[in-house]
Amino acid sequence: MIPADGYVATAAHPGRPDVLTAWMDAAVVDENDPVATDPDLDLFNEHNGPPYPPKFVARYRSAQTARNHAITDWAEMELKRVRAAGFSDRPFTVMRTWADPRIVDPSIEPSKRQPNLCYAGVPAKANRSAHGIAAACTLRSWLGMWSLRVAQTRAEPHLARITCPALVINAEADTGVFPSDARRIYGALASADKAQASIDSDHYFTTRGARSEQADTIARWITKRWR
């Protein structure tokens, strides 16, 4: 394998398990019942916010992590059970995954993003739809892609092995990836030569001129190092 000359991340998140967990609805109390909700953790209960107090956000984040781990615990046990019966895998659903407090409350990690908007539209509505990044899973795909504890799709262990020059570009108007994600990636890189940049655009850099600015930013970075 030939080592890379450089590494560029644009509007990147720190890995599938991390971004899913950050978006998970912490108020879910039964994975088999999309309606069952803990009202004290309900992001869309006006008595909780927005704005959301720091204590609520801390409890919410802890419950999101616990939800991810609980699905992993079940998936590991269920995979053993179905394999013992001669099955290779089984499908299941993960509902309500458009509920990151930052999406609803713009005072949490301010940026140039449009408030109360996610990639699937208005969060309260999207969160109750059948569309989500992990809506259709199998036991093996959950363990391999979405689990915080066992999936190998988290960025930081891999970023720690990157020592070549690196550039991290943040999209300031991104409604699903945030400035802290760019900082987290930047901090995890082992590169001695690394840089950060920001572009005032959405996740896919679709605003007018944004992709040209993105390309020019990368070109300048490359030209400075390799002529």
Describe the structure.
With 227 residues, the chain is of the alpha/beta class. It contains eight helices and five strands, in the order βααβααβααβαβα. It has helices at 16-23, 54-84, 101-104, 123-126, 139-146, 155-159, 179-188, 210-225; strands at residues 7-10, 91-93, 136-138, 166-171, 194-199. The strands form two sheets. Strands 1-4-5 form a three-stranded parallel sheet, with helices on both faces. Strands 2-3 form a two-stranded antiparallel sheet. Strand 4, helix 7 and strand 5 form a beta-alpha-beta unit. Helix 1 (16-23) crosses helix 2 (54-84) and helix 2 packs across helix 5. The chain is globular and about 60 Å long. The mean pLDDT is 97.
Mean pLDDT: 97
What is the β-strand count? 5
Terminal Cα span: 24 Å
Order of helices and strands: EHHEHHEHHEHEH
Alpha plus pi helix count = 8
Instruction: Please outline the major beta sheet.
Output: 3 strands, parallel
Instruction: Name the shape in a single word.
Output: globular
Rg from alpha-carbon coordinates: 19 Å
In helices, the fraction of residues equals: 25-40%
Strand order of the largest sheet: 1-4-5
Q: Which spans of ≥5 residues are poorly predicted at pLDDT below 50?
A: none
The structure class reads: alpha/beta
Percent range for β-strand residues:
5-15%
